[in-house]
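Dear Dr. H.,

I hope your travels went smoothly. While you were away I took the liberty of generating a structure for the chain from your last submission, since the lab meeting agenda had it listed for discussion. I wanted you to have the full record in hand beforehand rather than looking at slides cold. The sequence, exactly as received, is reproduced here:
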Amino acid sequence: MTHEKGLSMKLDHINIVTADLDAAVKFFDDIMGMKVGPRPNFNSNGAWFYGEDGVPAPVHLNIGDETDGPTGNMDHIAFKGDDFDGLLERLTAHGFDYENRVVPGSGVRQVFFMSPFGIKFEVDFDPEVSA
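The corresponding predicted structure, in token form, is as follows:
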């Protein structure tokens, strides 16, 4: 099965849950060379990382108990999509439950859903794509 749109999906980020945010930030700073940078004003605490060139790195951290969620420390994998309506239609047609969210301050649309193999996925859409 092929789709006209959605083929340009690219990995956007991974989201890791940690009980010790300071230690995780130190690891990504000291070992991976990533620096903490701007993060939207979500209801949860966490950190987003950037490379030395200021380009966003594909790692987001959330503070929490890694045993709380169904995916352990790996909260979700996120992709950047270009076919908001098509994704919702495919999820509905195949019987997947999903949740829509909007990133505070940016208008980026997020769609979250569980894969049949136990990993949570997020697909992000620019506001103009998901209007």
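Two observations you may find useful: The radius of gyration is 15 Å. Residues 39 and 48 are 6 Å apart (CA to CA).

With kind regards,
E. W.
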